[in-house]
Amino acid sequence: MKRPILLISACLLFVPPLCLAQEEVARRHVSEALALAAGGDTAAALAELYRAVEAAPDLAEAHFQLGRLLIRRASAKDADLSTHEAAQLALLRAVALEPENPVYLAEFVRLGE
Q1: Residue 108 dihedral angles phi and psi, to the nearest 5°
Q2: Is there a contact between 98 and 60 (Cβ–Cβ < 8 Å)?
Q3: Neighbour count for residue 2 (Cβ, 10 Å)
Q4: Tens of pLDDT along the chain (113 residues)?
Protein backbone atom coordinates (compact mmCIF):
# COMPACT_ATOMS: atom_id res chain seq x y z
CA MET A 1 0.00 0.00 0.00
CA LYS A 2 2.91 2.36 0.60
CA ARG A 3 4.22 2.04 -2.96
CA PRO A 4 1.36 3.93 -4.68
CA ILE A 5 1.58 6.73 -2.13
CA LEU A 6 5.33 6.91 -2.55
CA LEU A 7 5.01 6.91 -6.33
CA ILE A 8 2.36 9.66 -6.28
CA SER A 9 4.48 11.73 -3.90
CA ALA A 10 7.51 11.37 -6.14
CA CYS A 11 5.49 12.43 -9.19
CA LEU A 12 4.18 15.49 -7.41
CA LEU A 13 7.72 16.58 -6.62
CA PHE A 14 8.63 16.61 -10.31
CA VAL A 15 5.49 18.21 -11.75
CA PRO A 16 6.10 21.82 -10.63
CA PRO A 17 9.67 21.95 -11.99
CA LEU A 18 8.46 20.45 -15.26
CA CYS A 19 5.71 23.09 -15.53
CA LEU A 20 8.21 25.83 -14.79
CA ALA A 21 10.56 24.50 -17.45
CA GLN A 22 7.75 24.48 -20.01
CA GLU A 23 6.82 28.03 -19.09
CA GLU A 24 10.44 29.13 -19.51
CA VAL A 25 10.57 27.48 -22.95
CA ALA A 26 7.34 29.27 -23.87
CA ARG A 27 8.71 32.62 -22.69
CA ARG A 28 11.77 32.13 -24.90
CA HIS A 29 9.48 31.45 -27.85
CA VAL A 30 7.55 34.64 -27.06
CA SER A 31 10.78 36.67 -26.87
CA GLU A 32 11.98 35.24 -30.16
CA ALA A 33 8.59 35.95 -31.73
CA LEU A 34 8.69 39.58 -30.63
CA ALA A 35 12.17 39.98 -32.12
CA LEU A 36 11.09 38.36 -35.38
CA ALA A 37 7.97 40.52 -35.56
CA ALA A 38 10.03 43.65 -34.94
CA GLY A 39 12.23 42.58 -37.85
CA GLY A 40 9.20 42.17 -40.09
CA ASP A 41 9.08 38.36 -40.23
CA THR A 42 5.46 37.86 -39.22
CA ALA A 43 5.22 34.25 -40.41
CA ALA A 44 8.19 33.14 -38.34
CA ALA A 45 6.94 35.16 -35.37
CA LEU A 46 3.55 33.46 -35.55
CA ALA A 47 5.24 30.06 -35.67
CA GLU A 48 7.17 30.91 -32.51
CA LEU A 49 4.00 32.05 -30.76
CA TYR A 50 2.19 28.86 -31.68
CA ARG A 51 5.15 26.95 -30.21
CA ALA A 52 4.87 29.04 -27.05
CA VAL A 53 1.17 28.27 -26.69
CA GLU A 54 1.86 24.59 -27.26
CA ALA A 55 4.68 24.52 -24.69
CA ALA A 56 2.68 26.30 -21.98
CA PRO A 57 -1.05 26.47 -22.76
CA ASP A 58 -1.73 28.38 -19.53
CA LEU A 59 0.74 31.19 -20.23
CA ALA A 60 -1.53 34.18 -20.83
CA GLU A 61 1.24 36.28 -22.36
CA ALA A 62 1.74 33.76 -25.18
CA HIS A 63 -1.95 33.90 -26.09
CA PHE A 64 -1.95 37.69 -25.81
CA GLN A 65 1.04 38.15 -28.11
CA LEU A 66 -0.43 35.63 -30.56
CA GLY A 67 -3.70 37.56 -30.60
CA ARG A 68 -1.93 40.89 -31.11
CA LEU A 69 0.11 39.59 -34.01
CA LEU A 70 -2.92 37.96 -35.59
CA ILE A 71 -4.77 41.29 -35.30
CA ARG A 72 -2.01 42.95 -37.31
CA ARG A 73 -2.26 40.20 -39.90
CA ALA A 74 -6.06 40.48 -39.96
CA SER A 75 -5.67 44.17 -40.75
CA ALA A 76 -3.87 43.30 -43.98
CA LYS A 77 -5.84 43.22 -47.22
CA ASP A 78 -5.27 39.53 -47.83
CA ALA A 79 -6.45 38.41 -44.40
CA ASP A 80 -9.56 36.30 -44.15
CA LEU A 81 -12.19 36.04 -41.46
CA SER A 82 -10.50 33.04 -39.86
CA THR A 83 -7.46 35.16 -38.97
CA HIS A 84 -9.71 37.65 -37.19
CA GLU A 85 -11.48 34.82 -35.37
CA ALA A 86 -8.16 33.26 -34.36
CA ALA A 87 -7.07 36.63 -32.94
CA GLN A 88 -10.30 36.86 -30.95
CA LEU A 89 -9.85 33.36 -29.56
CA ALA A 90 -6.24 34.00 -28.56
CA LEU A 91 -7.12 37.25 -26.80
CA LEU A 92 -10.14 35.67 -25.13
CA ARG A 93 -7.90 32.89 -23.80
CA ALA A 94 -5.41 35.47 -22.45
CA VAL A 95 -8.24 37.34 -20.70
CA ALA A 96 -9.64 34.08 -19.32
CA LEU A 97 -6.23 33.18 -17.89
CA GLU A 98 -5.58 36.67 -16.45
CA PRO A 99 -8.93 38.48 -16.18
CA GLU A 100 -7.45 41.24 -14.04
CA ASN A 101 -4.85 42.25 -16.64
CA PRO A 102 -5.97 45.63 -18.02
CA VAL A 103 -3.74 45.42 -21.10
CA TYR A 104 -5.28 42.12 -22.17
CA LEU A 105 -8.79 43.44 -21.55
CA ALA A 106 -8.15 46.65 -23.48
CA GLU A 107 -6.77 44.77 -26.49
CA PHE A 108 -9.73 42.42 -26.50
CA VAL A 109 -12.20 45.31 -26.32
CA ARG A 110 -10.34 47.18 -29.06
CA LEU A 111 -10.57 44.14 -31.33
CA GLY A 112 -14.36 44.18 -30.98
CA GLU A 113 -14.62 47.81 -32.09
Answers
A1: -65, -45
A2: yes
A3: 6
A4: 445 554 444 454 555 554 557 899 999 999 999 999 999 999 999 999 999 999 999 999 999 999 999 988 876 655 567 888 899 999 999 999 999 999 998 988 887 76
Amino acid (one-letter) located at 88? Q
What is the DSSP track for 44-110? Answer: HHHHHHHHHHHH-TT-HHHHHHHHHHHHHHHTSTT--HHHHHHHHHHHHHHHHH-TT-HHHHHHHHH
Judge whether 97 and 110 are in contact, CB under 8 Å. no
CB 94 within 8 A of CB 104: yes
* Cα dihedral 7, 13, 18, 19 sign: positive
pTM score, whole prediction: 0.78
